[in-house]
Amino acid sequence: MADTVEIRWHGRGGQGTVTAAKVLADACLSGGRFVQAFPEYGPERAGAPLKAYNRIGTRELRMHCPVLNPQVVSVVDATLLDTVDVTEGAAENAVFIVNTPKEPQEIRQKLGAKPGQRVFTVDATRIAMETIGKAFPNSPMLGAVVRVTGLVSLEHLLEDVRKSFGKKFSEQIIEGNLNAVRRGYEEVKEG
Length: 191
Description:
The chain has about 190 residues and is of the alpha/beta class.
């Protein structure tokens, strides 16, 4: 990966997209990287489209603006593919990771991905339902993003998920999220 990796997350309010960007930043920070994580949304309520961003670098980050040319695009809600151009500004060699039960080849066509761009899919909502009991796809998406990018190890990410969620949730919910992260990491597939 480059000195600085820029990630743009697309999701809907209430799905944990902003939390996912923050947890990834925390894991990369404790792994010795320089990080930024920030959301972009207005006064919308749950269900409204939003974006969140990460910048992760090996050197101090001096840029403080939205990510316009992401190398990684994480789509937490596939219904956004019908209403939002998630490919806008994506780097020529961008990686797209989409929460969907569909095959990567089908999503590649829908996105109109260019030859140098890679497309991955993971059924994060199904994983969340099976591990957490609720449709919060952020944890499986975190696992998938870490697997595809290699920004931090799975073990490091799991430690940070436990730390981030440990103050707010019961042990049962924490364990469910840890299993969701592991399964997202294991079940992501490339087309």
